[in-house]
Design goal:
The protein is an alpha/beta fold. The chain has helices spanning 2-21, 31-34, 59-65, 115-118, 138-152, 195-204, 240-249, 310-316, 321-330, 340-345, 349-355, 360-364, 368-379, and strands spanning 42-47, 52-54, 57-58, 69-75, 93-94, 101-104, 123-127, 155-159, 170-173, 188-190, 213-216, 269-272, 280-282, 300-304.
Length: 386
């Protein structure tokens, strides 16, 4: 009996030690790789609140502490501190902790720095936690800065982070007629790449200019690693569950249906005042993540997805069933959709097929062949095992 207990405890200890040894280490922790590249250089950083060097210290604070010549911080959507509502302009400011100027790349203007600013630094460090979706805008800010860096001979160092949706790819390839600020490259909705990998693909395929880039890899990570984000990447993705549902429920941004902004479960619920007969209901209200959410103050009836198992979400992938369900319930025809829908889904046939009464399964079959071609392309640029 005691021998069995001893063996069980031994296996437990070994398991704990193995888990500890396999802890994912993000690119920012590998200072031996990138700090030598910064010596004697003027350095700018494209980062936000997720760029943590350690549990208690931001990358910018660490670089400042180590005496790196920081000349500027570039902020993407949601701002340097990650608190600005989606889609709103982000103003220039100054980082109080370091005194370094913060220059917004999401200010409604050119969304790339002036020539004068680009001449003011030699190296650009990129560190932002992405969630692996074509319509999540951090990678677009990075690619714009890569193009600018190529024009001015600036070296780009990407401190990579895991992709929480990196274990699969799904969705139609973007028809470039719908290229926009929420879709920049001819890739599927769920692209299965880290920020470093998508930069390599964009340059390798000629979608971005050939800048001098270096990717500092994550350690102990591959594309089957289920990585738990230590910090919410944006105000309306507060949980890992919401991040897993986001590929499917974000499509409601292109419809009349509420996707839960203004509630404590954004992208985990959906509903509309006219979807009566549903047991679940919610009332969107202004909050920190949404000052004026869709159907603000109205009683919405709909569906609560918080109990859906994560394994089921992974198995389904990009799931059109939610949009089809709401469309059939409301029976509004084309008025159900807004022009944003095509920008998000990336093609015109999905709206058309939903209106024609096709099922989610039938529509999803439409993109499978091009998705297989993309998977072959993707393998050329993977720096982590599948």
């Amino acid at each position: 009996m005691f021998r069995h207990i001893y063996i069980s405890l031994l296996f437990l200890v070994v398991s704990i030690l193995n888990l500890s040894a396999q802890e994912v280490l993000v690119g920012a922790t590998d200072t031996e790789r990138y700090m030598p590249l910064l010596e004697g250089k003027r350095v700018a950083v494209l980062a936000n609140h997720t760029a943590m060097y350690s549990a208690n210290e931001h990358l910018v604070d660490m670089l400042h502490r180590e005496g790196v010549n920081l000349v500027g911080i570039f902020a993407p959507e949601h701002g340097f501190r990650g608190k600005v509502e989606a889609g709103l302009k982000v103003a220039n400011s100054v980082d109080e902790a370091t005194g370094v100027a913060i220059l917004s790349l999401y200010n409604g203007n050119t969304q790339r720095p002036s020539d004068e600013v680009m001449r003011s630094f030699d190296v650009l460090i990129v560190d932002m936690q992405d969630v692996g979706l074509r319509f999540y805008t951090y990678y677009i800010s990075m690619l714009r800065m890569i193009d600018a860096s190529a024009d001015f001979g600036v070296k780009v160092v990407i401190l990579d982070r895991p992709n929480p949706n990196g274990h699969y790819v799904d969705g139609p390839i973007l028809d470039m007629r719908y290229k926009s600020g929420v879709g920049w490259l001819p890739i599927p909705v769920v692209h299965g790449l880290t920020m470093g990998e998508i930069a390599l693909m964009a340059i390798g395929e000629g979608w971005s200019k050939a800048a001098d880039i270096e990717v500092v890899k994550c350690r102990n990570y591959d594309h089957q690693t289920h990585y738990t984000l230590p910090i919410a990447p944006s105000p309306n993705l507060p949980t890992l569950h919401s991040i897993y549902l986001y590929p499917s429920t974000c499509l409601f941004e292109g419809t009349v249906v509420s996707m839960g902004r203004g509630t404590d479960a954004p992208f985990e619920v959906y509903g509309h005042p006219a979807m009566e007969g549903r047991e679940f209901s919610f009332v969107p209200q202004p909050n920190a993540g949404s000052k004026n959410p869709p159907h603000c103050g109205e009683l919405c009836y709909g569906v609560d997805l918080r109990s859906v198992a994560e394994e089921d979400i992974w198995h389904k992938g990009l799931n059109l069933e939610y949009v089809v369900d709401a469309y059939r319930d409301l029976d509004m025809g084309d008025e159900f959709f807004t022009p944003m829908f095509e920008k998000l889904i990336g093609v015109d046939y999905v709206r058309r097929m939903i209106i024609e009464g096709q099922s989610a399964e039938e529509i999803e079959k439409m993109w499978q062949s091009e998705l297989e071609e993309y998977k072959t392309l993707r393998r050329r640029y993977l720096i982590y095992n599948e």
